[in-house]
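Lab notebook page, bench 4
Experiment: in silico fold of construct C2
Operator: M.H.
Input chain length: 478 residues
Purpose: comparison with the prior construct
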Amino acid sequence: MWIAARKAKLCTKSKPRSERLPDSSRPRHLGAPTVAGRGLLCNRARRCNREVEGIVVDKSGLAGFATRVDKAAEALRTLFAETPLQENEHLSRKTGARVFLKREDLTPVRSYKIRGAYNFFRKALARPDAPQSFVCASAGNHAQGFAHVCRQMRKTGVIFMPVTTPRQKIDKTATFGGDFVDIRLTGDFFDDCLAAALAHADETGALMVPPFDHVDIIEGQASVAHEIAHQMPAGAPDMMILPVGGGGLAAGVTRYGAARGWATRFVFAEPDGAPSLRRSLEAGRRTKLAQVDNFVDGAAVAEIGREPLRHLKGFAAADVHLVPENRLCATMVEMLNVEGVVLEPAGALAIDALKDFSRQDLKGKTVVAIVSGGNFDFERLPDVKERALRFEGLKKYFVFRFPQRPGALRDFLDLLGPEDDIVRFEYLKKSARNFGSVLIGIETRQKRNFAALKKRFDQAGWSYQDITDNEVLAGFII
């Protein structure tokens, strides 16, 4: 989707501030003023809007948004320097484009989430009725950003995390927050934690800090675009690929791009198992997914944020690329082996989406991919490697009807090629009958080796089934 400015005139001005809902009457868990109070697009703002392709905006709203983002970016410099925008030679050679990576994995908490959290705190504490305590619900990067800001601002905070949260994430969050945060493990799912956090806010008066669905969070995340605007060697990029979970980063960056007049094509990358933005754009309304795959945990959101969708609803569903999990794992392994860059699954989404474009599509273009996070638990590495090998066709699983006779195993091994290796051999069912079921895992160095191997199996009369791509069966026994 190409962002292009169109001429229009403002019809009327918005209501004076004195006519708007006072801050004190707003729900405590919402924190900062509502969208109407921010001068953004809303039903209560009586003005004629112009439309920039992909985003419905008004001129004064865009200018005000960009100004607030610039201030947020300036304030962030008290926490950390701009994250680097690095041209990646490996990806540039592969694609034919000049590929730049915006390294959000190099923030103090190894994700961009600290940006929105800090901006939210900064604005809340500047209000006359500034809160004394905060609360959030998260199982990942938002919790770590929240904890870091609590310690920096010297404010107490309570973090509700699922009982199933990996110990590594709990310990890291505790390290970032120190004595200023109280981590409470509640329930098995995020919704359990969210309910507990909202109840805590109502009971104690603590201010709820949402992970993405708030204008102050969006403005903070948009500081990524502010930095890119100053870092690009030759103006705005031709294409920018944005990972999407709840949509705060995507909404902020695209809106800032519109404010700065970027003629940039924005592409969104979502996990194939959690396509909340894609489904909402297809339906023309905010849609909650009935089921979410949590493998890409940093972007596994059942429902896109209400406020982010307000800014993203003008994009087409085709602008959202769904990333298969196994292919994503191959990208993670590639970045680790070739570049020495450790990425979490959500952090590799934008890089992986490059694979959806042909070399002709990208040749000569400047592309920015947002690397959103690097909080990877190395206990997951065997699973990531397994998925990567299966995607690349270098590892397969078979169920054989194995003869129960002496020499059968030797006959089978004789069929393997010089680059083939057995990595698993397990009897699934062994009986007194002539045949038993055996699970056999085989790795090879080149994908084409399996075609030759299967041909030898067939010629030798072996009875077998390739279950590599049978997700249901493979999920039970692999």
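Observations: The chain has three domains: 17-109+218-382, 132-205, 394-477. The radius of gyration is 26 Å.
Next step: discuss at group meeting.
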